[in-house]
Amino acid sequence: MLKWHAQAALLNIYGTGIRARALFDPSLRSREDVSWLLVATLPNSGSTAVSKLLQGSSRSLAVTPSGEGQWLLPAMSAPGKRWEPSRSVDYEQMRRVWLSRVPKGDAPVVVIDKSPSNLVRLAEVAHALSSMPVKLISVTRDPYATVASWAKRYPPARVIRDWRPSLKGQLGTDDAFFEALGNIWGEWAAMLLKLRERADYSTSYETLVAAPADFVTAITGLYPELSDIDPSANVSVKDYEAQPLRNMNDEQIASLTPAQLGAVTKGLAPHEGIVRALGYELRG
């Protein structure tokens, strides 16, 4: 938390300078050479693979190394608060800061952003950028594989700190932890399902890794300038070595014990309609 506060202080200083620059620099308000591709997805659901694959084009980039512009604004990245739909965000400042990170070049570029917690505010983000071309894609993933990945990377203390402070004191057992993760998946997936109604293209992690060339074809239909993406390119995701896209669901789900699978199902059960609408089924 102290690290985040230090980063937030530096970002606020940077943002103050950008706000002042914008008074006389119109390129911080809108750019004719910039388009946006926003990726709506849950954490650990394939968005890094999508972002890295898309950034293989010479005409694409991201405003941060992670592909998540949320980290440039404290209001959008605050631990325990960034997933709050009612969180107050200065979207004009977001646009200014993001544009300040896009270098000026000889050719137009498409900026890829995959900030997971922007799922709760993606309509507002898209509106703030709407003086420029904006496209939205959504990506789903099997809830059990997603939860298995969460459990590996986010222990209970981190889930409480970063995602759900309201769960403090409630995740003391394995069953409680995995049930909570299943419930969180269901709540966020409901937001994703609603966003799919306005998405320019929707797919799943499973479809993407099975046929990356089809995914690239769909994306170049939205932005033809990205036609040099190589669907067979090696992609580095999280702590895995760079490799072509492949389905990692089975090996991640295999890390869950039968009891953990059952707890995830219990957490997902109130959201069964959402699970089915996104193309998945409850297990066990």
From TrEMBL:
Protein name: Sulfotransferase family protein
Organism: Parvularcula marina
Lineage: Bacteria, Pseudomonadati, Pseudomonadota, Alphaproteobacteria, Parvularculales
